[in-house]
Amino acid sequence: MIDESGSALPANGVPAEQVLAEIRSLREADRPTHGGRLFAYVYDPAVAGLDELTAAAYAESAHVNGLDPTAFPSLLAMENALVGAAARVLGGGPGTSAPEVVGSVTSGGTESLILAVKAARDARPEITAARIVVPSSAHAAFAKAAHYLRVALDTVPVDPATLRPSVADVAAAIGPETVLVVCSAPSYAHGVVDPVAEIAETAAAAGVRCHVDACFGGWTLPYLRRLGVDVPAFDFAVAGVTSISVDLHKYAYAPKGVSVLLHRDAGLRAPQYFAYADWPGYTMVNPVISSTRSGGPIAAAYATLRHLGDDGYLELARRTRDAVRVLADAVRGVDGLRLVAEPESTVVCLTSTDPALDLFVLVDELTARGWHTQPQLAYAGLPRSVHLTVTAAVAPRVAEFGPALAEAAVAARAAGPVVLPPELLALAGSLTPQALTPELVAGLAEGLGLAGRAGPPDRMAVVNTLLDAAPVRLRERLLVEFVGLLQRPTW
Ligand SMILES: Cc1ncc(COP(=O)(O)O)c(C=O)c1O
Predict the structure, then answer these.
(1) How far apart are CA 414 and CA 58, in angstroms?
(2) Least confident piece of the model among 107-116, 145-154, 239-248, 421-430
(3) Any residues with CB less than 8 A from the CB of 183 and at least 6 apart, and which?
(4) How far from 156 is each of 117, 170, 171, CA to CA, in Å?
(5) Which of 257, 307, 344, 428: disulfide with 469, CB 3.0–4.6 Å?
(6) How many Å apart are CA 10 and CA 382, to the nearest integer?
């Protein structure tokens, strides 16, 4: 029996107003995208009228297709303007040491990084087994790129105190098959900037490209520097930097679906393209992974940048910097918590120094109080932690966070740490991904309260504790299985 109420294809069409009401009702289960209490996934400047502007701009270009820039010059014009703006923010363009910077608009950070790896790989066709060197703190999208493109990943550990790789380790990891060296400015997990100048120099000396992943905070660092924050050189002002990615849907505050991949010159970008004329249809040339591309995100990003302007971004960076300081003080003010790193960008990352204060329980207690933070599992000598991506929207609410954090810490202590049954802990520690049967997954999901739900449970501490206890490969496999359970068609 098919339940028509939520069907995406009802027998008879539903009136527009009703459809919108249904979507709004579905959205009620979501985390709040506005209001400054969500510290991940969403970047909100809290600028009145911006949502209306970007929605209108999006609608204007939603049906325009970026497949063919000659058919839709409006899109080409906006894309070129976005690339020019990103290049200027990141030390390139006329009057700089990188006047020839070119780039492309992609759908997001992951696509930009995959393309940076592809360009580096295809620039060296003589290397049959290409490799890339990445700090262990680099975004997981590099591993995805390596996986998709069959490039090997050479991971360099980060120092547990500085959370940065040592330049000597990076140099040692570069070999004859290395096509790309990566650094982050800043890293997502901890918000620290890698020693870009030294790493880029090392890469250049070895004749290897160097990509700076500025997807996350690259748009804010230059503004923070203008506000007096000590930001090390990380952009095209550094001679050995060959490409940079920056996501406009993060700190440029554009709606989702827009990142920019910049190359120092057109020669470096050339291997990024894919062209094909060996079929009877239209001859195809794609600068990015998608072929058909909606103009919506590009137009919305263009509207965002033009509306906020350079002065707007400076002001938003100021508000964000001030909010970061208050949040960091709030962490310092709670016994048993400490900052994993002194904030140098727009991330506050904290950990627990008290076994009685379980971070995963703390995250649930914060959620229960309307503050949505992001737990990070322990990894390679780094402790489990809580990540806060701070955006300008937090500024008006920031004074409320300290008391909420203190209260949540008291509640987490009272609740006590998660204690998994010893047999489950032993299983998590010993199980191999291969040994994970569908029955075992179903049993685990049942036990963790994940089975038969429309979404994840409200309290995730037990799930996070189990994942934390599992080795990396088992974590990955469990996540795939759990998300697979959520992704079931509704008829
Ligand atoms: C440093 C960094 N690089 C890349 C990405 C991937 O971006 P996206 O989620 O837009 O694909 C992120 C996302 O958080 C990031 O923080």
Answers:
(1) 48
(2) 421-430
(3) 135, 138, 165, 194, 195, 196, 199, 200, 210, 211, 212, 213, 234
(4) 17, 6, 10
(5) 428
(6) 50
Q: Average pLDDT of the chain?
A: 95
Residues with CB under 6 A from ligand 1: 108-110, 113, 139, 141, 184, 188, 213, 215-216, 247, 259
Looking at residue 82, its amino acid is L
| 360 within 8 A of 341, measured Cβ to Cβ | no
* C-alpha 430 to ligand 1 mean position (Å): 32
Length of the chain: 491
Total-model pTM? 0.97
Kindly give the distance from the C-alpha atom of residue 228 to the centroid of ligand 1, in angstroms, as a whole number.
26
For residue 111, report the distance from its CA to the centre of ligand 1, in Å: 9
Query: Ligand 1, from 114, 142, 215, 246: best to mutate by most atoms within 8 Å of Cβ?
Result: 215
Say if residue 425's pLDDT is above 80.
yes
Among residues 325, 373, 312, which one has the least CA distance to residue 48?
312
